[in-house]
Amino acid sequence: MQNKESDGKQLTAVPRSRRKTALVTGGTKGIGKAIADKLSEAGAQVIITARQPPEEPNSAHQFIEADITQPHQVDQLAHTIHERFGGLDILIDNIGGVTAPRGGFSCLTDQDWEQELQLNLLATIRLDRALLPHMLAKKSGVIIHISSVAGVKPVWNHNLAYAVSKAGLNAYSKALSNELAPQGVRVLTVSPGATNTPLMQGLIQKVAATSGLSAEETFHQMAAQVGGIPMGRMAEPEEVASLVHFLVSPAASYLTGANYLIDGGTVPVV
């Protein structure tokens, strides 16, 4: 059987021994799950990690339980990946979320700030540090940091600490890309806007319960605080996954260091 020429749809050649190996953190639900599914469909061997197993296991994914906000669990995860898979070709740092209370700076304690930074920034830095040596040794690899439009357009009464942590991730990602580009490793950032995930739906329901508005009214009110969404809807996780798939594919081989906003036009900059 002859291999077809790559058109960006496949990540690897057909033989199993030459499949690309990818890790998706937070890969059991939402955007992470959509990315893991997309990469599997494209022919990659996909490892997913999270603190709890997926509710609906996918036989195409290799699940490793880990809390990567804990340094010793990051080390164990990296060791397991090296022993079982020989390292990675693709790393999708997707873990993250809003854990701090709403209401602005006066509502946030040191613990809130530390927790947000651990989840949205430091966990990613630790994992990169643990898994990069293999990529550098073979002078190839792709790292995608999943950030947020909040990193460039924060909403003070909804996501202040989260936005600051994602802004830090954006700066780290850019600096890392400049360091690693001469060594054959590409680093990119993807910043989704409002995306139709269980986490987002839960946030909308929580805000709606305290405001007396419907979920739909609450969403439009929240969107208005960031200047609106010109496309008039949230992204679907699969749309974010399609962008990530392109960025890790050979079709994007000259791309590194950029932050790709996938926000329906929310951020009003040229």
From TrEMBL:
Family designation: Belongs to the short-chain dehydrogenases/reductases (SDR) family.
UniProt name for this protein: SDR family oxidoreductase
SUPFAM superfamilies (alphabetical): NAD(P)-binding Rossmann-fold domains
Recorded GO MF terms: oxidoreductase activity, acting on the CH-OH group of donors, NAD or NADP as acceptor
UniProt keywords, alphabetically: Oxidoreductase
Region (Disordered): 1-25
Keyword Zinc: no
Lineage: Bacteria, Pseudomonadati, Bacteroidota, Cytophagia, Cytophagales
Organism: Hymenobacter wooponensis
